[in-house]
Design brief:
By secondary structure, the protein is an alpha/beta fold. It has 13 helices and eight strands. An eight-stranded parallel beta sheet has the order 7-6-5-4-3-2-1-8. The protein is globular and about 55 Å long. The chain starts with 41 loop residues before the first helix and ends in a 12-residue tail after the last helix.
Length: 344
Amino acid sequence: MIPPLPAPEAQPRTRNPPRAHDAVADDPMTQATLNPGTPLDLARVRAARVNQPAVARRIATLNARRSVKKDHQAAWLVRAIQCMDLTTLSGDDSYGRVERLCAKARRPLRADLLAALGLPQLQVGAVCVYHEMLAAAVPALAGSGIPVAVVSTGFPAGLSPMETKLREIELSVAAGATEVDIVISRRHALLHDWQAVYDEVKAFRAACGPAHLKAILATGELQTLENVARASWAAMMAGADFIKTSTGKEGVNATLDVSLVMARAIREYHEETGHVVGYKPAGGISSAKSALQYLALMKEELGNEWLLPDRFRFGASSLLTDIERQLEHHVTGAYSASWRHAMP
């Protein structure tokens, strides 16, 4: 049985290794908008700088560190499941696949594993689908408390006309989506047109109404870490509730160095405005070991408050399979074949 985890502490960042946290989150997502935004401060956006050698040294400490073990590792992996946006974004998605994914979201672990871990229940942070799949996802998750997220605004390239993007958001929210993952127009960031990035995200924020907005920066296409930092600031000022690394369709998706830059932008924005912004790395996170690195980074850079699903999410599909295998090994002492934990 994994030990009960304390509630997140009030104090900010700590360099100590994380202890086990309460294995069952209270609410997967608050309904109020996390970030009201601010007027655009171009001087502040342009002032964002990144010391690349320092970033590399900081990430090297994560890669060289010994991982947590045994009960504490199991508790961390349970938290990773709670913070997971279980995702299917394939061209061959069907209602049946989405319904199976939603069933997995409601019960991501087998009953015998839950019992052995001492967990009365467990569910993921959200389910993320295309707009056409909302008709299956919304009723399948009704009454579960699991948010339904949708990708929008011409995902993944974001090159649809602005009118189409706004209408797409409105239709998705009307269809039951409670979170909207939008994509910025990368050309604006590459041209350093931060006013355009701000105006675009602000319009998306207005179209979302009560739904949460997650701004995908497509960091693998922004060329420099300074562009990542400045795009993060522009999106947060425009009212993004989360900033997210990638669509999962780029050549380079979530990385620890990009995550460090975005986490520190979130921290500075919170310190300067008092507003809370969540973080979502997406794409390429498929192992339990890498999930632990991201969770450790969040704890050390942002504090325990960013270890809950209302402030942190993994955009993932195959990650759950590896976490299931690790938890079964924790319980039984033997690794199971990956096909025994196949996703829908």
